[in-house]
Amino acid sequence: MTNKWHQLTALELGGKIQQGEIDPVDLTQYFLDRIKEKDPDNVIYVRLTEERALREAKAASIRAKSGVRRSALDGVPISWKDLFDTAGIETEAGTQLLEGRIPNHDAECLRRATNAGLICLGKTNMPDLAFSGLGNNPWTGTGTNPHDTEQDRVPGGSSAGAALSVYHGLAAAAIGSDTAGSVRIPAAWCGITGLKTTHGLISLEGSVPLSPSQDTVGPLTHDIADANALCAILSGEKPADLHGATLKGARILVATTVFDDLVEPEINQTIAAGLDKLRVAGAEIVRGAVPAFADVLACCNENGYPGMLEGYALWGDQIRQTPDRIFSSIGNRFLAGEKFSAGNALKLEFALKKLKAEYAQQTAGFDLVVGATQPSIPPLLDKLYADEAYYLDMALMSISLTRLANLLGLCATTLPAGSALGFPVGMMLMAPAFEEGKLLRLSSAAEKALQI
Fold first, then answer.
1. Rounded mean pLDDT of the chain?
2. Contact at 8 Å (CB) between 121 and 48?
3. Confidence of residue 2 (pLDDT cuts 50, 70, 90)
4. Does domain 2-235 have CATH number 3.40.50.2300?
5. How do residues 29-39 score in pLDDT, each as one tens digit?
6. Residues 326/128, Cβ–Cβ less than 8 Å
7. CATH 3.90.1300.10 is right for the domain spanning 251-450
8. Cα–Cα dist 399/69, whole Å
């Protein structure tokens, strides 16, 4: 059975630890060995935290044998995106701007996970300062999308290594961040599950910032049950009760605004087939406009969007002083924030507050708003380096749908919903702020329906 452990969910592994069938030390060593075998070029993990992992595993083993496990995931090894501080271990956020940076303390969310007994395997790859939905990085290298065996395509970002660590069985689950889609994009393009939490639900203390008003912490997992368990641990809230989760009586709004204009027909067909399964499972499916989606994008086009404005305020001076320490296409995106004024930033802030209220009115009476997670398939890697205009187009494409939830303060999941054009298709389910409980229950029911 040991050669199948990577195929189990985090909760399944935790259950076997509880039953005495797996020792956390053996499990951790198993994953460390797989990482060394499957990721020899360190393009998924930029560094392992092997000493820490084995130390934590030994403590988890003692707790398991003593019957004092700290949580259902005590002793389960997971990966961490390299923007979450790890005490005494480099945290560089994918950029040479921070090369050699060693924090003194763990990020708050990592501290919570460690207190629950989770094992930190190592730090996963990402693009510079998380400012890309594509996931490529010329400095650290790029783990390629696993669904094209002939040409190198991006895995999605910015939680690129996080998604690949789960897909390839190099971690039982992964913790990433999502500012404009950075959990959901790679989860969708790699064919796994992702949860974007409400801003403020999980502490950002000790994470390298991109946009403090938009950054969120979220898990990438094999299924919704694992995402639910991890969200509870990281937030300190009770997990949603997924038992008996059903779509019967649920009202789902399929957004036509923005989605109908951007999503490729083949992907739309897959989403439509998935929605039919949700309807058979008892959901009421209604197609309709959500004007706030178009309005919020128009507002950002006029005044800049938070990732650019706040990212420029945080990193612009350092990028201008050492432009060779950041991938130029990402550096230029940061510096584009210079053309916007303080007035623009205030207009954006006021408009977002108004648009959140309008969105709530436009979607009142629905339990979820649903659409494709990604409008197209992942782009070819080499072309992103050869053509900066193409890079920018693809970067904006990748976040075109996912950033709607960030801008409007929503929580969201992405679920595997089938395939199109040779790649997985993610279905994005969105719910109002701090309604993770409802979102996770309905996502669990949708997950079951989509697998039929």
1. 98
2. yes
3. low
4. no
5. 999 999 999 99
6. yes
7. yes
8. 40
